[in-house]
Each structure stands twice: as C-alpha cells, then as structure tokens.
C-alpha cells in the first residue's frame, strides 16, 4: 500500500460515521441546551460585528490584544479560504450537489458550537510572559476540568493536533490551491508562487497577532465583498438555471441513490455520501467544532465571554451560509457540474469553480476565481499560523520556539505549493478530525458533568435582549 493510500485510509476512518455524529450531534445538543439562543440572537450578533468597540476597551475588563472586529476578521481569515471555492466544488463532485444542503445543516448547528468554543476560550484565557493573551480549548480543558489529569491530557492532545493541522489545513492546502490556480490562469510555475508566498508570509507573521489582525482586518472584508458581488452577478446571468439547480440540490441531499440530472448528469451520489462530504467540507470551511477559531477569540478586547462568543459565531454564518452558498449556486446554475476535461476526467476543485464563473462572464471568471483563491488562501495561512503558534506556545512556553515556528511555517508554504492535491486534502481532513475530538469532548463535559454558577460555561453564560440592552442570565443547571 502506497503512502497516499495509507493517508486516504486513515482519513476515511477519522471522518467515518462516528465523527459525523459527534460533530453534528454536539451542535444539536448545544443548540437545544442554549434554547436556540444562537439562532434567536443571530441578528444581534451580526449587528455587533459592525458596532464600535467600547470607549473604555483598554481597561482591565476589556483586556486583550486586538479589537473584537479584528479578532473576528482573523478567525474569518482562517475560515474563508480554499474550502469556500475548492472545497465546495470538491464536495459537489464527490458527494453530489446535495452535499451543499448538509453544509448548511452542519453550519446552522455549528453556530452554537462556535459560540460555545469562543465563550470558554475567553473565560479561561490568560496572559503569557510577553504580555499577550493566550487562550483556546487547551486552556479551557486544563483549567475547567475538575479531573485535572484528564483535562491536561486532552489539552496536550488538542495542542499537538492543532500544531500539526496548522501545516495542513492552514498551510499546505492553501498554498497548493494558490499555486494551482495561478499556474492554470497565468502560467506561472508553482515554485515561483511558492517563493512569493514564503516571503509575504514572513513579512506579516514576524509582527505577531497585531500585524496579522491589521492585515486580516483590511483584506478579509474586501475579498469577501468582491467574491460575493461576482458570484451574485454570475447567478443573475444564469438565473434561468437556478430553480432547477436548487431542486437537484435538495433532491440529491436526501435521495438513497440518485443521478444529478441537469446540473451534473455524470454525478452519482447517495444521501450518505452527500452527508459525509457536505459535513466534512463544511467543517473544513467554517471550522465549527475544531476549536481553532476560539484561539483568535481569546485575543479580543471584550467585557464578557458571551459577547465575543456571539461575535465569533457569525464567522460560521458568513463563511458557509453566505460565501459557500454563493459558490454552490454558481456551480449548480452553470451547467458545468459533471462535465469532463480534455483528459476525460471530471472537472473538480478550483477548475470546476473557474469553469462555472466562465460560463457566465467568460475569461474574466477565471481571473476572479484566481484572485479570490489567492486572497482567501493567503489570509487563511496568516490566521492558521496564529492558531498553530498559540498551540505550540501551550506545549513549549518559549519565545524562541515561537519565532522558529513562524519561520518554519512560512517556509512550508513553498512545499505546499508543489504538493499533490489529493494527499494534501486527505492529510488536512485527518488532522481536522483529530483536533476536533478533544475539543468536542471539552464542550460536552463542561456542559453536562461540570456545570457551575461560579464558572461561566456556555450554558450559564448567555445574553438576552432586554429593552435594547444585553443582560447576562446566569442559571444553575441541575
């Protein structure tokens, strides 16, 4: 058995039915546990994203390294990446167009998961030796579990998997997608793209979280609006195909075995494959349940864990329910899903999305997708470096180790730009699954076995609207 076959086999095991049940099941449980507050207060959460930070944000109650908006943008930088362009296209080929529905379903319940992760991250964060905030699931496990050895073990495993995953989901995959898109569109050799990415990453990453926050706060809003507008234009041009495309999306999402019909006649998939690829690619894209985004939430200047929890959970909304939906509808309305290239292979990944945009706006479509991939993927590299850095800091509290990590992480982008796509995807998926396991256990344990009014677990720390103000409702769980 070759190395790629081994990686694929391990990936299939990690992302088997048990992982799907654990991921979606945790989201369902937390949604019910919170009495659907993440859904009910989504409007407030979205408004909070664009609300000016409190004037007294530099007080102890608002301690942190970056603003709540920059924290969300850093998290979005890590989530809005190739998963929104390459991942959606891959899911719709391997799982059929119905995979998009399962991406939506996992994202809806992922709102509660992302909220809970972020609340715990802010609650249990601490200040490191450099005066910066350090937080995330590993600190919640270490400080929140009453059984200390278990919490410390899970924290170690999560941090280890997160460091490894940062080189997969946050680096190799992103660099690979950028180099592939640039080569196909502009004919630039992959090694040149790799060198440019390495230099740019070093320039930004050496400045730490404040540098990352500033760059992401600038790039992310621009790239998201740019891609959204272009996608809407394509959908409008192909509007006559949209109704049929939507029908096929929902039909194949719940069909035991079906052919994709008008939106991809050669795509054959079952409900289980749609669920498997939809959930896997959905989590790859929005990262709800992985425990990564809370690491950025812990760096925010905020007066209460739940407030930042609401702000950070909108990342799942913007990522999957907005950006991924645009990509999915563009592909479904284009008529290119299920078509083959000159070599007789199905179009998939970035090439499928490019062809979908080209179906409406011609060669400009390839340019738009390429620019989108470049911006999305590069910002993801920046965001995930911070996740890996903080995880490494937990394992090895050394400033020198962090600086070495930043340099090595930047250099790895070069290798990612020249690595075979399927191996990269399988490796990234596997690391995602492994780091999600201790994080989901943490969420469940702190809300079933160890609820306490003294600690602000996500079940005792929720906001309700009261005369236009937010008030904390603490209630004891029996």
What key attributes describe this structure?
Amino acid/polyamine transporter I, two-stranded antiparallel sheet, 71% helix, 4% strand, disordered C terminus
Model description:
The termini are far apart. α7 packs across α12 (242-253), α9 (148-186) crosses α10 and α10 (190-205) packs antiparallel against α18 (399-416). The chain has one domain: Amino acid/polyamine transporter I (Up-down Bundle). It contains 19 helices and six strands. It has a two-stranded antiparallel sheet with strand order 1-2. It has helices at residues 3-14, 17-33, 37-40, 42-49, 68-79, 82-94, 99-123, 137-144, 148-186, 190-205, 208-237, 242-253, 271-286, 293-297, 305-334, 349-361, 363-395, 399-416, 421-448; strands at residues 126-127, 133-134, 258-259, 268-269, 462-466, 469-473. The chain has 478 residues and is mainly alpha-helical.
